[in-house]
Amino acid sequence: MTLREIPVHTLSGEPTTLAELAGSGPLLVVNVASKCGLTPQYTGLVELQKQYGPRGFTVVGVPCNQFMGQEPGTAEEIAQFCATTYGVDFPLLAKVDVNGDDRDPLYRELVETPDAEGTAGDIQWNFEKFLIDRDDKITRFRPRTEPTDAAVVAAIEAAL
C-alpha cells in the first residue's frame, strides 16, 4: 500500500485516502490546532492553497489535540473556526493522534521521514509539515517553519 492509499477520514467522518483528496499532485500534510501560538500559520497554508491549488497542489490539515490540548473542539467547531477565522478551503481530516501508541497509520509512515538535519521520529508540535511530491517522496518541515518560508515554497515549486 502506498502512502496515498492509507485509509483516512475527512473531518466530517467520511472514509477517503490522500489519493482521493489530492490525486497524484503534490500535497502538504500538516497537523493543525485552533488554540496554538502557531495557529496563525493557517494564513500561510491558505495562501499556498490559493497560489498552487490550480496547478494540482493540495494542503491537507490534520487536527490533533496531543499538544497541551490545543485542538479541543468537535469536528463541527474545528470546521467553523477554520472557515470563519482563516477562510480555510483545503481538506481537513478527522482529529487523530500523531504520536504514541495510538498514532494514526498515516503518521506512522510520515514520522519515518527525517527533517533537514536528518532527524526522524515523533512530531514535535502543532504545524509540522510534510510535503509529498508526485512520486511520494517526502520532505519534512518542523513546526516553526512558516508555510510560506522560502524552503517550503521552493520544495512545492520543484514538486509541481
Automatic annotation (TrEMBL):
Pfam families on file: GSHPx
GO molecular function, one term: peroxidase activity
SUPFAM superfamilies noted in UniProt: Thioredoxin-like (SSF52833)
UniProt-listed Gene3D superfamilies: Glutaredoxin
GO aspect biological process, one term: cellular response to oxidative stress
Oxidoreductase in keyword set: yes
Keywords: Oxidoreductase, Peroxidase
UniProt-listed InterPro entries: Glutathione_peroxidase, Thioredoxin-like_sf
UniProt-annotated catalytic positions: 36
Domain of life: Bacteria
Protein's UniProt keywords contain Cell cycle: no
Homology family: Belongs to the glutathione peroxidase family.
Protein name per Swiss-Prot or TrEMBL: Glutathione peroxidase
